[in-house]
Amino acid sequence: MLPPVPEDPPDNKPAAFLPAFVAAITRPPKASRGRFILAMCVALTADLLFWWLGEALPVVTDFAVAFVLALCLGGFSVELLAACIAEATPGVGLLPAWSVAVPILWARANAARQAREATAPTRAP
Predict the structure, then answer these.
(1) Least reliable range by pLDDT among 48-52, 92-96, 105-109, 117-121
(2) Model-level pTM?
(3) 17, 61 in Cβ contact below 8 A?
(4) Greatest alpha-carbon span in the chain
């Protein structure tokens, strides 16, 4: 029989911020319907502007759009990161990545809301 494995000393444990960061970036947004509409307007405006001006705008504007969308939606997410990378890539930036990311976030938020409502305990009258 093998002896029990001792626990790691406290100084050898991984950093606690990494699981918190991953949980924060993968959680569904809890924004209201009005904030999603505002985010969709920002995304459509940015995509139309980027399509009309082409690659003339610097990459900083992609990061600015990502920042504004994160403010509208209550936090940064994996979908916004993917859209930001796609928009910053030359040639791919002409595709409507922002206008695709926001409805995906909307669907994910609705699915999470329905799951919360389905698992919420109901009280007897």
Answers:
(1) 117-121
(2) 0.71
(3) no
(4) 71
Q: How far apart are CA 29 and CA 46, in angstroms?
A: 21
Radius of gyration of the chain (CA): 20
Tens-digit pLDDT profile for residues 35-58: 899 999 999 999 999 888 877 888
User: What length does the chain have?
Assistant: 125
- Contact by Cβ (8 Å): 103, 51: no
Q: Coil, strand, or helix at residue 101?
A: helix
- pLDDT(10) > 60: no
Least confident of 22-31, 102-111, 113-122: 22-31
Alpha carbon distance 55, 70 (integer Å)? 23
Total Cβ atoms within 10 A of residue 20: 10
Q: Quickly list DSSP for 17-65.
A: HHHHHHHHHHSPP---HHHHHHHHHHHHHHHHHHHHHGGGS-HHHHHHH
